[in-house]
Specification:
Strand content: 25-35%
Shape: globular
CATH topology: Phosphatidylethanolamine-binding Protein
CATH class: Alpha Beta
Radius of gyration: 19 Å
Structural class: alpha+beta
Order of helices and strands: HEEEEEEEEHE
Distance between the termini: 72 Å
CATH architecture: Alpha-Beta Complex
CATH superfamily: PEBP-like
Number of domains: 1
Length: 171
């Protein structure tokens, strides 16, 4: 009976303990702070280039980074994806503005690469999500946000997020 009780306690502890804990990356930018305003340089009103990103807390075993930039406030179902990029080498950190490396997937306009923020109304939140992966990914150039997310399953060592805000000047 004592063995059975001990086994049940061990099973209960194991069931409530997360064995798949992922480390956190710290994502920063020299262009804006977390929950701060993104300069228009990175929008449809500016140069339409990505802002620089710095990735800290990179775990051992990281073979590549992936980045997804997404606007959940966009007036379309599921929001609008501004950037999908993978197979960024860990040595390419920080990620410079106007980055053309890695493998550039399709954004929400069905075009490869980064597309600048251009909210039709109001202030939108832009989520810069960075993933440290234990592998390089073999993906088609037409891979979008959903395809990248599916391909990363089981390969994410750590992830982090930086949120920026943007509102067009002439609204």
């Amino acid at each position: 009976m004592h063995l059975l009780t001990s086994s049940l306690i061990v099973a209960a502890v194991a069931a409530t303990t997360s064995f798949s804990h992922k480390d956190s990356l710290t994502i920063t930018s020299t262009a804006f702070t977390n929950n701060g305003n993104i300069p228009s340089k990175y929008s449809c009103e500016g140069e339409k280039i990505n802002p620089p990103l710095n990735i800290a807390g990179v775990p051992d075993g990281t073979k590549s980074f992936a980045i997804i930039v997404h606007d959940p406030d966009a007036p379309r179902e599921g929001g609008f994806t501004h950037w999908v990029v993978w197979n960024i080498e860990p040595l390419e950190n920080p990620i410079p503005e106007n980055y053309k490396g890695g493998e550039q997937g399709l954004n929400g306009a069905n075009q490869p690469g980064y597309i600048g923020m251009c909210p039709p109304t109001g202030t939108h939140h832009y989520h810069f999500k960075v993933y440290a992966l234990d592998t390089l990914l073999s993906l088609n150039k037409k891979t979008d946000k959903a395809g990248l997310e599916k391909s990363m399953e089981g390969h994410i060592l750590a992830q982090g997020e930086l949120i920026g805000l943007y509102k067009k000047m002439n609204q």
